[in-house]
Amino acid sequence: MTAQTSEVIRPLHPTGPVLFTLVRDVDVSGVSGTGTVADGVVWPDGTVSVRWRGDRPSIVHWRTLDDVKHIHGHGGATRIVLPATERERLGRIAEAHAKSVHGSGATSGLCAECGFAHPCPTYVWATTERDLNATWDPRDDEPDDDAGDPYGEAGESR
Fold first, then answer.
1. What is the average per-residue pLDDT within 106-117?
2. Sequence-ordered alpha helix ranges (H) in 2-52
3. Helix, strand, coil % in the chain, rounded to nearest 5
4. pLDDT > 70: what percent of the chain?
5. CA-CA distance, 115 to 104, in Å (whole number)?
6. Is 68 exposed, middle or buried (0-12, 13-18, 19+ CB in 10 A)?
7. Helices 4-12 + 65-72 axis angle, to 10
8. Predicted pLDDT at 28
């Protein structure tokens, strides 16, 4: 892992910790096994804590995530897996809520995931530029006139 890794981590949550896992594809040492072998935290100051899983768990602290990769990466046998970014998750949501297309190339015009007319509210939400920390209300994407408000003024369904 290059110095670039630590630089990428800090902008994700400059005031909060970032979680990650160590996933071992090949057990070079014969001690930890394969799969997810440790959980880690990159702290806001860039230091890192790693807690090993298994019968004899332990916690170690490192100066940077690059140090963790250098010591425990075993030439690519162990990967540091970071959480997906908000944009990556929204991209997967939008992809799942794409227009249904049949093998012949024909489409029903419906969302492949939820069956609503495409673009469904979820697709619109996932593809519209907005504050990712805001709460989504389906009515946000409805017309402002009363005819487009299925809840009416009292919030009851018509």
1. 88
2. 4-12
3. 30, 25, 50
4. 72
5. 19
6. buried
7. 130
8. 80
